[in-house]
Design brief:
Elements lengths: L12 H9 L3 E6 L36 H13 L6 E6 L9 H12 L5 E8 L6 H11 L3 E9 L3 H6 L6 H12 L4 E8 L6 H11 L6 E6 L2 E2 L3 H8 L7 H14 L5 E4 L9 E3 L6 H15 L10
Parallel strand pairs: 1-2, 2-3, 3-4, 4-5, 5-6, 6-8
Antiparallel strand pairs: 7-9
Length: 310
């Protein structure tokens, strides 16, 4: 069990990277031009309801630039704040195992060669795009570098999966995690809090389910409505209430208390570009949100895993 310090009462990504690599490590988000089976008609059209209808990669690099140019641009920006560090090449935009195996190998190899200080790969994908052949390929990278595969679950509840148009069920997700873990590949799971139809208890149950799956990391997001999404269209047609900052902090604090203390918390909240955000605007103050969560845990005298039961 990780020993928590006075700084943070939970296992942070910053601490994990420092322990693993001995120095500052940055993730550089790349856009390799992948599509998604939930966008191109294979599973659905338009993607999940919160995905951009323009197909952009959120904070990843520009698909108009090659990987080297994307990497160099982001590296230069980071070096203005931190002059020294290693890098993880992060395939972020869309579904980054959704291509022929040979294409994937070419892109992953290219990414590892972008800079001598790259120490690993992070690959964001879907649970239904990880057949044995793809996992075989991923395993070859797991054997030679740091590798984490990120999966978007969002919620364990099938009602939510249907409403957000996720395109696969929980059994598919669980099977994908087991397939990766059978090879020892690190798994990071994205979840979203704040769906209007989910109770606080329902959100907690999502984290409790993840405890049973032997995952290595979690990214916790708040549902926010951004322009040019199906969710935005639904919001304009019939506005719905989203939880406020203090309620979100309470939900996350509860989740942290029940989370396996060996799982690295890579993110406590999500943010969107101010120009794209419709609601809630409190998510823009990311550090205020994090400080509110930290303060609540300290007031409780609590920490990650205090209520965890294996």
């Amino acid at each position: 069990m990780p020993k928590f310090t006075y700084e943070k009462p939970y296992y942070t990504m910053h601490r994990f990277l420092k322990e693993t690599f001995g120095q500052k490590v940055f993730k550089v988000s790349l856009n390799a031009g992948f599509s998604c089976p939930n966008k191109d008609g294979t599973k659905g059209v338009g993607g999940c309801i919160y995905c951009s209808l323009s197909g952009s990669g959120d904070f990843a690099g520009s698909v108009k630039e090659n990987l080297q140019s994307q990497f160099d641009t982001i590296k230069t920006m980071m070096q203005k704040k931190w002059s020294q560090g290693k890098y993880i090449a992060y395939f972020q935009a869309n579904t980054n195992t959704y291509a022929d195996r040979a294409v994937l190998k070419t892109l992953y190899d290219e990414a590892l060669g972008l800079d001598p200080n790259i120490v690993g790969l992070a690959i964001a994908t879907r649970a239904d795009c990880l057949d044995e052949s793809i996992v075989d390929l991923l395993d070859t990278y797991h054997q030679k570098t740091y590798l984490q595969v990120e999966l978007g679950l969002q919620s364990i509840h099938e009602k939510t999966a249907e409403k957000i148009n996720r395109g696969h069920d929980l059994k598919t997700f669980d099977a994908a995690v087991r397939r990766l873990r059978n090879r020892g590949i690190n798994v990071v799971v994205h979840i979203i809090n704040g769906f209007p139809w989910e109770s606080e208890d329902a959100m907690l149950k999502t984290v409790q389910h993840l405890n049973s799956l032997d995952i290595q990391g979690i990214k916790i997001h708040m549902l926010h409505v951004v322009k040019n999404t199906k969710l935005a269209n639904l919001y304009h047609q019939e506005p719905f209430d989203l939880i406020d900052r203090d309620t979100y902090a309470k939900v996350v604090a509860n989740q942290i208390e029940h989370l396996d203390p060996n799982i690295v918390i890579q993110r406590l909240t999500g943010d969107a570009k101010r120009s794209d955000l419709i609601t809630p605007f409190w998510t823009l103050k990311k550090f205020v949100v994090i400080n509110t969560i930290d303060k609540l845990l300290r007031e409780r005298g609590s920490y990650q895993g205090i209520y965890f039961k294996r």
